Amino acid sequence: MENSTIEKAELNKNVEDLNIEVNSLMNKLSEKDILSENLNNDVKILSKKVTELEAKLAENKAALSNKDGAFSLDSEWDSLKQWITPQQIRFCTILAEYDLEKVSALESGNQLKQNLAIMQRDEDIDALLLGRSADEAGYFRNWIGTIESVFAIPQINPSTNESQLAAGVIIRTPCGGVTIGSGRVIGDVTSDEEYAAVAFPEDPIYSQLSQVSRGDPVLFDGALLTYSAGRSTSMPKFFTNIDGTKNTNTDAANVGVKDAPDYFVNIEYLSKL
Question: Do residues 265 and 225 touch, judged by C-beta distance below 8 A?
Fold first, then answer.
């Protein structure tokens, strides 16, 4: 935490120094005598210097913003940013804030701080997904992402109690590359071949998934999956790999995941842009 504070102080000083230098050069450029023909070369040099300093200033401000825990959208999402809802931006911000708290907690060597960081993250997500009514609690609408993969796997359909070909999807989100969707779970289920958040042929999402390919931008509705009742309140509420359990069979909490996204999400509706 001390290193983070020092880095933040250095970034603040860099931003202040660069602001002073940029303003000084801009003042020089605005002086009438520098616009004479004999000083055209100086003007070009100063203009180039201002451009370089402004770029460096933008980089330092972005780095400072990240130190403050603010979510910063990657440039690859620029063409789709008009589709990102305030709710999804808040979700991304919560995850960005957790990333900082997680590092701080790990550096402290205090397991209680790590658990508290997880609980705070899940409380914030829970509050975000309360909805306007009890029926909407836990759901989100019109989130955006790009298709990472769509897969098919034989699964027991709970409606018919028969094995059918189920469809699953993994979607990459603007939240720093965090993925959400379907995947294989180990730990909370009895079979290594059990998949969570899959769709069956009678589900509308099944046919919608058949129409998309990797990289397609999509809008989708759904709900984050939560763990079953009876779990410790210090454990994650939402079924997630963000806590470092990805690609492992089990962890200390007997919650394991494999071939899965960062967050398990039951996608109910999907539309290709």
Answer: yes
* % of the chain surpassing 90 pLDDT: 35
Tokens of 69: 């825990």
* Under 8 Å between Cβ of 258 and 245: no
For β-strands 256-258 and 162-172, DSSP reports them as unpaired
Of 29-43, 209-223, 248-262, the one with minimum mean pLDDT is: 248-262
Q: Which residue has the tokens 């690859």?
A: 76
Q: Are 15 and 57 in contact (CB under 8 A)?
A: yes
Tens digits of per-residue pLDDT, 231-251? 556 567 888 888 754 443 333
DSSP the chain: -HHHHHHHHHHHHHHHHHHHHHHHHHHHHHSGGGGSGGGHHHHHHHHHHHHHHHHHHHHHHHHHHHHTT-----GGGGGGGGG--HHHHHHHHHHHHHHHHHHHHHHHT-HHHHHHHHHHHHHHHHHHT--SSGGGTTEEEEEEEEEEEEEEEEEEETTTTEEEEEEEEEEE-TTTT-EEE-EEEESSSS-TT-EES-B-TTSHHHHHHTT--TT-EEEEEEEE-BPPTT--TTS-SB-BSTTTTTTBS--TTS-EEES--SEEEEEEEEEE-
pLDDT in tens, 74-92: 888 989 989 999 999 999 9
